[in-house]
Specification:
alpha/beta, TIM Barrel, two-stranded antiparallel ribbon
């Protein structure tokens, strides 16, 4: 049975908001006021959830910001990104449980398996550490006593008092294309997230992930993180895409991409490959434009088109099994309003995403 889609937006906590890519604007810099405005406009526009990204060197902290904005949201969920290893897992569990309490059960968690600031760890041990963190968080957020003996953590302790045991846990969203990442997702994630790719490649990845999860007796749901530029006509959308990139030079774009701690990951390399595969205007397939990746190290493509074309693209993705979408656009508040006006009313989406953890 196909689930109703979850439609999320993106709040630019990591200094990732522009009118012209690569041209910083103080009014669009990451701050409490600016990122709060994006979140409130997303809730007003009817989105189900909003991703709060995390980057050590860039912008403001996702957990601290979530605590500031949680009391202002009446309906929308928060998808809070946390970078594994940057915080002691029991304390992180306590912070996340507190956020879930403040949100009345509307917390969702984006687990990021990143290098720690100042450290470079090989892929295998880094993902092994991530898996341990996910297991620790799930146990403590379930309200269960923790007895964990692993390579990175050796813990014996009760859950924090703020945790209220219930059947519906904050779901873990997690992505990555390497074998190590896919194995961790199959074992411990609830929603496997993908960055943009060709339709045929998405199908191959999802088939592989279903098999991996099944080998552990689990079912995954699937999500898709992609930018969007929607206008009344395709010509206007393409013109908006050209305008967005009109002041970017290659050197500035490369400098921006290298700022990320994850700039050499498997997923980032795939985004670069798509730019190489694209046509002269940057399109790698119908309505999927890779130009935006010239100034981003991560999610590097956008759906570009009129409302019907954007809807058709989303429907193609849904037919593959994707049902949790995280959209964004530049500037984020303005593009949020455009998507809410042109696309969101035509989507039969879920007001709250199911929290039934995969077992």
């Amino acid at each position: 049975m196909r689930h109703p889609p979850e439609i999320s937006w993106f709040s630019a906590l990591c200094d990732d908001d522009y009118e012209f890519m690569g041209q910083p604007d103080p009014a669009l810099a990451s701050s409490l006021d600016h990122c709060r405005d994006i979140a409130l406009r997303a809730e007003q526009g009817g989105f189900d959830n909003i991703l709060l990204p995390s980057g050590y060197a860039l912008g403001i902290d996702s957990v601290a910001f979530a605590g500031a904005v949680a009391p202002l949201l009446k309906r929308m969920q928060l998808l809070v990104a946390v970078r594994c290893g940057e915080m002691w897992p029991p304390q992180l569990a306590r912070q996340l449980a507190t956020l879930d309490h403040m949100l009345h059960g509307r917390l969702t968690i984006n687990i990021i398996s990143s290098d720690l600031p100042g450290e470079v760890l090989d892929s295998a041990p880094r993902y092994a550490r991530t898996l341990e963190v996910m297991e620790i968080l799930r146990t403590l957020l379930s309200g269960h006593h923790l007895s964990h003996k692993g390579e990175f953590y050796n813990l014996e302790l009760a859950p924090p008092r703020i945790v209220h045991p219930h059947d519906r846990l904050p779901p873990f969203y997690f992505g990555g294309l390497s074998d190590h990442a896919r194995d961790v997702a199959a074992k411990a994630a609830d929603v496997f997230l993908m960055w943009p790719d060709r339709v045929e490649n998405i199908r191959v990845v999802l088939d592989d992930m279903r098999k991996r999860a099944s080998s552990h007796g689990r079912l995954l749901r699937f999500g898709y993180r992609v930018h969007v530029i929607v206008r009344e006509t395709e010509a206007e959308a393409r013109a908006a895409a050209r305008r967005l990139m009109s002041k970017l030079d290659d050197a500035t774009g490369e400098e921006i991409r290298k700022k990320s701690l994850d700039a050499t990951s498997f997923g980032v390399r795939r985004q670069a490959e798509m730019r190489d595969e694209a046509d002269d205007e940057g399109f790698v397939e119908d309505n999927l434009w890779t130009g935006i990746g010239r100034a981003r190290s991560g999610c590097g493509a956008a759906i570009v088109g009129d409302p019907d074309q954007v809807l058709k693209k989303i429907e193609i993705y849904r037919s593959l099994g994707l049902d949790a979408f995280i959209f964004s656009g530049y500037p984020h508040a303005d593009e949020c309003d455009l998507f809410a006006r042109y696309v969101l009313p035509k989507l039969d989406h879920a007001p709250l995403f199911s929290r039934e953890a995969s077992r």
